[in-house]
């Protein structure tokens, strides 16, 4: 038993020694610095005890210093590793780790005193030197370990300095407003400062009390209380630091229900996204089968501008107490439009959609969120004029929002007849029914693809714009009929089949993210912002009779490169672009342009009194001309005659360039003209022939 205990003790001792040796090997420079500090601390203690003059008059002190210093160095060289001074990552050291230093210094000082007592009875060294050198050594050891966190020292670099000059990296970061200046905010700011790929930069803090106002938290100014939110945002906007995201560092309830609700309402009105930090102790189930599982991504984080402010009172006056009909009600735009209209207490909502599941989903949403709003849901294609008129006759809607459309450029490009039947004929059917059954106003949702269109989708939506413009001008001339308003905007983030869901799927698979061209740019806004501005433009246009014969063009800020959106999504998901997740260039698809525009070459730009909205006046086409052309388009589309469909669209839109036209133009530039006989002979030898290359779709 005795030998077993001795063996176990020796084994534990050897393991402890091996661990101490390995810890020293990790921090050799720190170990040598500590030993040098031992000698310096002992020498300074003797100097403080005797002074310079007395010390120079006592030459025997040098031998005492060498003898006691050698003993103390030996003791520290053995005790420091065993006491755990090198078994911690001092980059994350805290005040509690100071006790390790105190324990090590106290233990080595006691051993030194004991050794000197038994060897010299402490006659060669003053007794005050030991406590003095111990205090000095504690300071030296703590300073050495503090250097591991030198990047957080205010004298070297503030964590977040509000007045620092902006560099390129700061320009790409999202301004952040923190709600709460407590321990959680401190931890978050520490983590944010350590992350070189952080996508946020804090600009200010708000706290629950006024005690900390005027102070700062890790360089971030505490600008006021939570009740001062709007004032602080206005001041930050004047300084060019308007926050685009608000983060509650604690649960909103901790700041008071009334104050939190008021801040949320103000943030919603100002178009600022709001999030809450997850609790550090909150456990989440890990899904080991998918290492690329995404964190939640706020779509507003992908935009480099704040969302527009709204006049909700004007929107409420437009919708409240009226019968509203929405086509395409289950789509991305339509469902958000339905939800926002339902929130304004209409008399009833009539939902039209051609997809059963989409209609079911939006109907269930209204059932759960707005059960008090009367509603009717109809499976109906806007192509069927008789079915559309039947619904209009039954409900006599006062407001019509036309969001039904085929919108995916490559799909419509491959199916031009279907695009014409939905986007052109469908719009005509809805507009004619609105005029026939006494609708007060019809609002058509359009797209920036109509501008200098190179795709079938853009051309069909352009024709829809022109038809609604012609009806609006006709009503202005005759004094009869509803207002026909068109709202044009660019890409919306998060819509079904759009860019962001695609990138999310690709990220979830670990990449690569596919981008058609490195220089491709688009105008972007969130679905919510697009719908809110659509309602606001409609409210102003109807109530104040603004923009008759005009197109309301939403102000979408500056265009954004698709590749920049991809990189930002990768960073928001917690990865490094081009290193952990690849971005792959795959080339443009049929009908796509490198950049989009909000105004056509033929559009006349006008100033609009509607906040966040611009004005455009296209060259009008007489209503009879459009009706005759639309009848031909419907006839050719129903027969599947794509060549005739393209020919009629080219009559109405002389600048429209079809895909086949571009291929023919490119081929004519590459191929010199040949006599007709030689062309036929060449075509006969070729397996495809020239006819296959120049053939229009569907011929």
TrEMBL record:
InterPro entries: NAD(P)-bd_dom_sf, Polysac_CapD-like, Polysaccharide_Synthase-Rel. Pfam families: Polysacc_synt_2. CDD domains: UDP_invert_4-6DH_SDR_e. Keywords: Membrane, Plasmid, Transmembrane, Transmembrane helix. Gene3D superfamilies: NAD(P)-binding Rossmann-like Domain (3.40.50.720). Residues 662-699 are annotated as: Disordered. Residues 671-685 have a biased composition (Basic residues). Residues 324-611 form the Polysaccharide biosynthesis protein CapD-like domain. It comes from the Bacteria. SUPFAM superfamilies: NAD(P)-binding Rossmann-fold domains (SSF51735). The chain crosses the membrane at residues 29-52, 64-86, 98-118. PANTHER family: POLYSACCHARIDE BIOSYNTHESIS PROTEIN EPSC-RELATED, UDP-N-ACETYLGLUCOSAMINE 4,6-DEHYDRATASE. Belongs to the polysaccharide synthase family. This is Polysaccharide biosynthesis protein. It comes from Sinorhizobium kummerowiae.
């Amino acid at each position: 038993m005795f030998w077993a205990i001795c063996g176990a003790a020796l084994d534990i001792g050897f393991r402890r020694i091996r661990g101490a040796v390995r810890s020293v090997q990790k921090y050799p420079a720190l170990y040598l610095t500590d030993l040098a500090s031992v000698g310096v601390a002992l020498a300074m203690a003797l100097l403080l005890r005797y002074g310079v003059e007395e010390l120079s008059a006592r030459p025997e002190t040098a031998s005492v210093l060498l003898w006691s210093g050698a003993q103390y160095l030996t003791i520290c060289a053995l005790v420091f590793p065993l006491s755990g001074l090198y078994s911690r990552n001092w980059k994350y050291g805290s005040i509690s780790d100071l006790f390790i230093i105190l324990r090590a210094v106290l233990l080595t000082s006691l051993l030194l005193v004991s050794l000197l007592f038994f060897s010299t009875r402490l006659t060669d060294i003053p007794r005050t030197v030991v406590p003095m050198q111990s205090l000095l050594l504690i300071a030296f050891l703590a300073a050495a370990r503090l250097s591991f966190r030198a990047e957080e020292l205010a004298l070297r670099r503030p964590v977040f300095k509000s007045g620092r000059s902006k560099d390129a990296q700061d320009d790409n970061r999202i301004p952040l407003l923190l709600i709460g200046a407590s321990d959680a905010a401190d931890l978050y700011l520490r983590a944010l400062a350590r992350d070189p790929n952080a996508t946020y930069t804090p600009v200010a803090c708000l706290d629950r009390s006024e005690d900390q106002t005027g102070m700062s938290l890790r360089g971030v100014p505490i600008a006021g209380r939570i009740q001062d939110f709007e004032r602080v945002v206005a001041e930050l906007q004047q300084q060019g630091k308007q926050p685009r995201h608000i983060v509650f560092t604690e649960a909103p309830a901790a700041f008071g229900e009334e104050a939190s609700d008021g801040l949320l309402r103000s943030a919603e009105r100002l178009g600022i996204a709001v999030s809450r930090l997850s609790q550090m102790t909150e456990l989440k189930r890990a899904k080991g089968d998918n290492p690329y599982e995404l964190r939640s991504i706020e779509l507003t984080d992908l935009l480099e501008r704040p969302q527009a402010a709204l006049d909700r009172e004007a929107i409420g006056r437009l919708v409240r107490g009226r019968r509203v009909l929405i086509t395409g009600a289950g789509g991305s735009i339509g469902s958000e439009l339905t939800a926002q209209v339902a929130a304004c207490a209409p008399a009833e909502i009539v939902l039209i959609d051609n997809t059963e599941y989409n209609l079911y989903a939006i109907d269930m949403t209204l059932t759960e969120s707005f059960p008090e709003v009367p509603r009717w849901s109809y499976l109906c294609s806007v192509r069927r004029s008789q079915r559309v008129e039947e619904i209009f006759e039954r409900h006599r809607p006062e407001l019509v929002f036309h969001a039904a459309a085929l919108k995916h450029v490559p799909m419509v490009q491959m199916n031009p007849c279907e695009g014409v039947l939905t986007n052109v004929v469908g719009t005509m059917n809805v507009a004619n029914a609105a005029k026939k059954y006494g609708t007060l106003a019809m609002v058509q949702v359009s797209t920036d693809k109509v501008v200098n269109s190179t795709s079938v989708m853009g051309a069909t939506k352009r024709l829809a714009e022109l038809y609604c413009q012609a009806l609006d001008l006709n009503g202005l001339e005759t004094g009869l009929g509803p207002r026909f308003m068109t709202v044009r905007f660019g890409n919306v983030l998060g819509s079904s089949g759009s860019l962001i869901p695609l990138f999310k799927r690709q990220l979830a698979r670990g990449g690569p993210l596919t981008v058609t061209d490195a220089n491709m740019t688009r105008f972007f806004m969130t679905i919510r912002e697009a719908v809110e501005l659509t309602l606001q433009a409609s409210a102003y246009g109807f109530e104040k009779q603004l923009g008759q014969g005009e197109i309301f063009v939403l102000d979408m800020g500056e265009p954004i490169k698709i590749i920049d959106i991809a990189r930002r999504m990768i960073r928001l998901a917690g990865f490094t672009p081009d290193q952990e997740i690849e971005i792959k260039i795959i080339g443009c698809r049929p009908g796509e342009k490198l950049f989009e525009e909000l105004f056509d070459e033929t559009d006349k730009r006008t100033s609009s009194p509607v906040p966040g909205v611009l004005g455009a006046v296209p060259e009008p086409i007489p209503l009879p001309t459009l009706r005759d052309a639309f009848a031909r388009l419907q006839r050719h589309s129903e027969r599947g005659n794509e060549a005739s469909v393209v020919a009629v669209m080219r009559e109405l839109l002389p600048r429209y360039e079809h895909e086949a036209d571009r291929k023919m133009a490119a081929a004519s530039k590459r191929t010199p003209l040949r006599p007709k006989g030689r062309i036929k002979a060449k075509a006969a030898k070729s397996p495809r022939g020239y006819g296959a290359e120049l053939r229009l779709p569907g011929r």
